[in-house]
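Raw record, unedited: DUF4192 domain-containing protein
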Amino acid sequence: MQVDQELLKLLTKIDEIDYDQEPLELQRQGARAVNEFMAEFKTHGLVRDKELIALLLVRLKDLQVRDYALGSVSAESLDLYFTAWRWLLRSAPEGYIAPVANLFAAVAYERGDGALAQRALDRAEGDDSSYAMSKLLRQVFNSGWAPNSFAQMRSELHPKICSELFSGTI
């Protein structure tokens, strides 16, 4: 797949979160980027704003932002998130694939496509073999965990993350 040079250039201009500093504002920025990305994707079926794509890819490296993205899926938006994460995964350059591939794997599994979810985890592990969520999801998928259990997990996880990031609101 051809790498988007403009996107690569934009990625170099965005600093990753420095945890020696207060990360909360940049994590909030990441959560908002998830929302903006999904709104744009829902409207147009793609996202043309490469600055938004770059910001999202960098912020998804943060576990809070990634978990916010994971928890923001609902039964009604599952197909949207599946299509959006698949689209973003095709655009993500090396070094930014693992978080997106894990998000895609989770929604693919929830939709009942375990084989596609496993292939997404293969892609994540090819990008970052030490990415902990890949190992966790692989164990969950291989254990035969019911795909609809993700909805229960989200209902417990997402309010906690929103509370940490936004004092319960966004």
